[in-house]
Amino acid sequence: MPFISSSRVNAASFSLFKRSMLQDASLPLSDVINDQRWQQVFNKHDIDFGSDPDVIYTPAITLWALISQVFFSGEQRSCKAAVIRVASLWAALGRRVCSTNTGAYCRARLKLSFTVIRDLVQQLAADAEAACDQNCVQSREQSAARLSPSSVADVKSRSTGGRILLVDGFTITAADTPENQRAYPQNPAQKPGLGFPVLRCVSLISMTTGLLVDLVSGPYSGKGSGETALLWQMLDALRPGDILVADSYYCTYWLVSACHARGVQILMKNHHLRDNHPQTARRLSKQERLVTWSRPSVCPAWMTRQEFWRQPLTLTLRLVDVQISQPGYRAKTFTIATTITDQKACPARWIAALYQSRWLVELDIRSIKCSLGMDILRAKSPGMVLTELWSCLLAYNLIRLKMLQSGMATGRDPRSLSFTTTQQMLAANWLLGAVTKTTEELATLGQQIPSSERVGHRTGRTEPRANKRRTKALALLKQPRYHYHQQRRAII
Questions:
Q1: Transposase IS4-like domain spans which residues (predicted)?
Q2: Chosen domain end from 286, 316, 341
Q3: Which of 67, 144, 225, 386 could form a Cys-Cys staple with 114, CB 3.0–4.6 A?
Q4: Which of 452, 469, 487 is the C-terminal boundary of a domain?
Q5: 3-state SS track over 156-183
């Protein structure tokens, strides 16, 4: 096996990631992972440590080890396992390994702020999407050849003129420490000492590529912790021509107005408190009508009076009734509210297909929380909680980038490739790729494995959520652990 000569390796260079990602100059999007641009991001945040030639934990190797933890679960996710991977890397490069103690690695991780990793995530998504033609119209035959899921194929049958961004929120828990509890208090419905710190996150994910464009996190409860308030912090990530797809929770006058001011179209399920058939509506067809929303008369507490008076007096939206008929189920009807009022350019059937694609963000969040194990964070301090969170998101975008590369090389829709298979491939080659040259055979293997599976084609699949194998039954702790230990000592 052609190992890289130790004399050719610069441990401070982020080219380590290109090798671990099995990148080759002949591959599409191979320049998205640019070691010089990554170094510029670190320089921007004044992160510079381990510059001595004999130092192991440079920013590049520390981040490489941090990402390696995300690819694995259980014991292989620990800091000890990450240090052993670094030691194996160091030994394979012909360097002497003095110790596998985790202290130096843990101290180096503390020097990586979450802001620098967040910038890498956003830069990766922006560069990859800029290199992809997301607005190309595909015929039914082309979508069938690319094995596109039905909802994606319907959306791509027409040009959108901009990105289609899916928004949704989710929660994750962190280690139960006093510092984390202060920053991210547990669910107020739980008794003190029994819950875990909870973070609320809202994500923006591209419908066509699956890349995470941005994410904002905050406490689970308290002022400004709602999903709409978190989304408000990401509005600057939107660009004119984008289409924002969300559920009814986000369908508020203020959010629609803010998107309209930025030239962003919205497509959401109509809020349950709004009338789906107002008397003042102008009928377009049996299932469609134009409505006018008036600005609320009361200024919300979080908005200044100057901002309130700058809001438009009225907004014109199009309501589209959608009926879902699935064998074995009752027909379900709901109403979609959208600022896309051109009925000819975007007919009701296309509007329904675009909203149906919103389910993809649920699958993406499942990949982040379950496949990457981000539902339970292990960090003991709020700063490291955010660092661990964004390292998981960087690993997610790296996996999506590899899927996008494979799709472009094999002519497959990236939404038809398996996220889990791609993750397994990168996990298996993360260390191997770092210590070997990326040969033509290795690069080809990295392109073939993600496209070896097909997902997203089982329309209307229904399976009961039931497990045959029983889990081990353990007693539930119903009081703080220190109270439990006090009672045990009293009994003894």
A1: 161-398
A2: 341
A3: 386
A4: 452
A5: CCCCCCCCEEEEEEEEEECCCCHHHHHH
